[in-house]
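Question (not urgent): is this output format expected?
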Amino acid sequence: MPSVLLSLGGLMLAGTLLDALQKWTVFIRVPELFILVPTLLGLKGNLEMNLASRLSTASNMGLLDKPTSRTELVLGNMALLQVQSACVSGIASTWSLTISGLVDGTWLHAKETALICAAGILTASAASLFLGQCNVWDSDCV
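Got this back:
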């Protein structure tokens, strides 16, 4: 029950933050960025759970017991996490542009398209790096 309440509080704070950010110039000029927000939030949960699953399986197989195999396994999984987050966020950015174009009937210029793709990929990569390190640090402590 405490985890559900903590999650609810986090979602409420995220909604409050988005309410404040919607008045920023970038969100007014490029509203497609709002389409990316729930997509990237869902992406992060899925990718982090995949990393946790891979590390748990490796731990159960005893691969995290030896320092040499642990370092190789952790670095490989972190690299895989970065590649997955960059690819999926790039696809999500393209999808948000496509949906916006189909709904509004207007297509963005190259600058706005580059902004949306760069923002999606940079956000996903930075969050994957931070959350992945937290996940790996937690698994090393076990």
